[in-house]
TrEMBL record:
The keyword 4Fe-4S does not apply. InterPro entries: AB_hydrolase_3 (IPR013094), AB_hydrolase_fold (IPR029058), Arylacetamide_deacetylase (IPR017157), GDXG_lipolytic_enzyme (IPR050300). This is Neutral cholesterol ester hydrolase 1. Belongs to the 'GDXG' lipolytic enzyme family. Residues 109-267, 321-381 form the Alpha/beta hydrolase fold-3 domain. It comes from the Eukaryota. Its EC number is 3.1.1.71. Keywords: Cell membrane, Endoplasmic reticulum, Glycoprotein, Hydrolase, Lipid degradation, Lipid metabolism, Membrane, Microsome, Signal-anchor, Transmembrane, Transmembrane helix.
Amino acid sequence: MKLLCGISLLLVVTVAYHIYIPLPRTISEPWKLMLLDAAFRCVTHVFNMAHHLGLTHRIHVLNYAINGVEMLVPVSCEGIQVQDTHFDGVQVRVYQPSQKEKNQLRRGVVFFHGGGWSIGAPKLGSYDLLCKKMASDLNAVVVTVDYRMAPEVHFPVQYEECLHATQHFLKPEVLAQYSVDPERVAVCGDSAGGNLAAAVSQQIGVDNDSSVKFKAQVLIYPVLQALDFNTPSYQQNQDVPILYRRLMARFWLEYLGANLDHVHPMLINNHTAKDHVRGSAHRAKLDWTTLLPQSIKKDYKPVVKETGSPEILEKLPALLDVRAAPLLAEEDRLRMAPRAYILTCEHDVLRDDGLMYGRRLEQAGVHVTSDHLQDGFHGCVSFAFWPCYFSVGIRAVQNYIAWLDENL
Ligand SMILES: *[C@@H]1O[C@H](CO)[C@@H](O)[C@H](O)[C@H]1NC(C)=O
Ligand SMILES: *[C@@H]1O[C@H](CO)[C@@H](O)[C@H](O)[C@H]1NC(C)=O
């Protein structure tokens, strides 16, 4: 009996030791987040092992795990018609409310899911429920783009598939076919999907071939730049689950089809040292010392190296490409973008990407609504549904849908 108690105690301590991580006091439901993080780390170990054994690419294992979990989420289909089809050769899923009055035109929402341009299942679980909720709460036709991902394809394929599917949907005859009001179409995305939504809405804004423009863009904790991995939020939240700073750098390199050896030099901003002329030209567009308020900057110091690793920008010109890093756009490009709702989370490495973009859009004359969640963490919008939900996730979804309801 004593032995059993001893073993049980040891087991509990071991599990607690592996699960426990120090978290900021203001974060939403810290114990739940620790469990989620432990599960995530466990899967990460398995996928690293499988990768090193040469069994499969680490991203594939992660995707199997995510799909497995997402399949557990109950499917509810009440009142929403679901159709899988292609827009200009790109796989999409269209959600339409079944009830419709004659001749009534609806709102339209184009949605790009997150997952570091390499993971995520738009047709399963939380993203599926999110699209159904948008379709039903907004009485909208929602198009989710099932773009191909890394490691099969790299930049600019993800961006181009999102753009082409969007251009197809925005054709007047296609909108008419779905009874969508051309004056009331928005684009929306979370995380890497927020990156794609920002990039696509910039392009649609300047595209002379698209007569229909977006009325609004919703960017949920978007990733917008890869030149500074030492913004205050990257410094403050580098170890906060579930998007660690290191993981974000890896997602970037996977997206660009680059060598993961660049992770370390990029994390210390070696790729944008002062001796690189090309990187320096963009510095003002992400100079957080002028773009962010003091309450966010606190006492954090910019990390600017005197000398660095110039070969990275030579090898990866996409780091300076606005289609990959929308924060680097010039003001005349930003000015053509639609009014924006930007959701940022305090406990997120990408917080300052979103805040800086909001500031730059405002400077360009675009109307911006900033929604900053003090207890939010990266990914919370994907945790808004049973069985895995956080109060902050539910709130985030309610907030952005309410904004769309007013502004679309
Ligand atoms: C769109 O038209 C304007 C004015 O004619 C022109 O200046 C601009 O370069 C065009 N944009 C694109 C993307 O072709
Ligand atoms: C960063 O750049 C410096 C100067 O070129 C170099 O000595 C150092 O090894 C680089 N660090 C990494 C991690 O690449």
